[in-house]
Amino acid sequence: MPVVKIRRLRDDIKPPSYAHPGDAGMDLFAPEPFTLRANGRYLVHMGFATEFPEGYMMEIRDKGGLAALHGIHVLGGIVDTGFRGEWVVTLHNTSDSDYHFEKGEKIAQAILTRIDRATLEETDELQDHTRGAGHHGSSGRF
Length: 142
Fold this sequence. Notes:
The strands form four sheets. Strands 2-11-6-8 form a four-stranded antiparallel beta sheet, with no helix packed on it. The protein has a three-stranded antiparallel beta sheet with strand order 4-9-7. It has a two-stranded antiparallel sheet with strand order 1-5. The chain has one helix at residues 64-70; strands at residues 5-8, 26-29, 34-36, 41-45, 48-51, 56-61, 72-75, 78-80, 88-93, 99-101, 106-114. The relative contact order is 0.25. It is built from one helix and eleven strands, in the order ββββββαβββββ. The longest helix has 7 residues, at 64-70. The protein has a single domain (5-114), classed as Deoxyuridine 5'-Triphosphate Nucleotidohydrolase, Chain A (Distorted Sandwich), CATH 2.70.40.
């Protein structure tokens, strides 16, 4: 099992944690109260930095309830293995209502994901495939 080291940059933060055994995502918590304005963005400075093994990344994802009930989504969301700075989570409120977060409230989740690095090879041709160059919706209704 990989080890994720967490360094607090503030004493008063709640560090990431898994809510239940078997959860894929560890919850990320608001380090202080803030209001995410309607149709606005907010950069949440999380108050911690991490170290985790080569061959992994952290994916920052929406909390399902916040997305479904309040239209709050994460923008961006990859933390690379070599990054040692403070985590910053960018939230976007797609609704027409402000949403207020209290300190310690769940704002997003982080998933430790194993990665493979690709070798990129330039070519003049690609093999044919049944999908071809079809764009969004080309295989039928969404």
